[in-house]
Amino acid sequence: MTADKKEKSATPIPLYLQVKHLITEKIVTGEWQVNDRVPSESELVIQFQCSRMTANRALRELTAQGLLIRLQGVGTFVAEPKGQSALFEIHSIESEIVARKHRYSCKIIKLEQVTASAALAQELNILSGNIVFHSVIVHLENDVPVQIEDRYVNALAAPDYLKQNFSSITPHDYLSQVAPLTQGEHIVEAVEADERSARLLHIDAGSSCLLITRRTWSQAFTVTSTKLLFPGHRYKLKGRFSS
């Protein structure tokens, strides 16, 4: 008889729940602080005399609940309380992170000039074949990736976009200066991370994510068409409205 079966015969509480309860208690009581490393699957197997499947399930479910964060090849750690991003308002992610008294940084993945496809031209209300600027930036909070920003910019609205140092000013803040927002729309949906996104966000491929597809206008110009991808277990969206 396995250790799991012995435990189940002695108590109605499944062993994986006992593991979860122990880890949760240590986090809630403050014994384990944010960013502390928690025991690995192998260590839990030894401590609880359980199967690796049981240990994996406990860690996996706590990660899905947002209490833990698992970094491939590094380990499992106590997670930060979920960040919060405005749903109906448009703010700089840097200002949101700094407001939480956390450290902001970014990694610039791509800055390029492209010609607009028919679909992109329709999005930006320009002619197919016109010049468009494209940037892909990963935003980090305390060195942990929290957002991939994949942005297309109407070159007519912000002709110097590619000349900017986006390590010192976010695209949002720069565009707010040169093409102030007068209107915006966005769509929020749940998606699964593909392999490229998972690699950039340090999560497993197939992990649940939040995707915001956003367009913005400044007077007569459609300025941007942007996709913002958040790891689902690290972020939540908040909206406030009135009738």
* CATH fold node name of the largest domain: Chorismate lyase
Give the number of domains: 2
CATH architecture of the largest domain: 3-Layer(aba) Sandwich
The biggest sheet, with number of strands, parallel, antiparallel or mixed sense and barrel status, is: 6 strands, antiparallel
**Could you give the order of the helices and strands?**
HHHHEEEHEHEEHEHEEE
Number of helices: 8
Distance between the first and last residues' Cα: 62 Å
The 3D shape can be described as elongated
The CATH class name of the largest domain reads Alpha Beta
**Regions with little confidence, pLDDT below 50 for 5+ residues:** 1-11, 84-88
The rounded Rg comes to 22 Å
The count of DSSP E runs of length 2 or more, i.e. the number of strands, is 10
Main sheet: strand order = 4-5-6-9-8-7
Mean pLDDT: 84
User: What structural class results from the helix and strand content?
Assistant: alpha+beta
Strand share of the residues? Answer: 25-35%
* Oligomer designation: single chain
Range of helix content: 25-40%
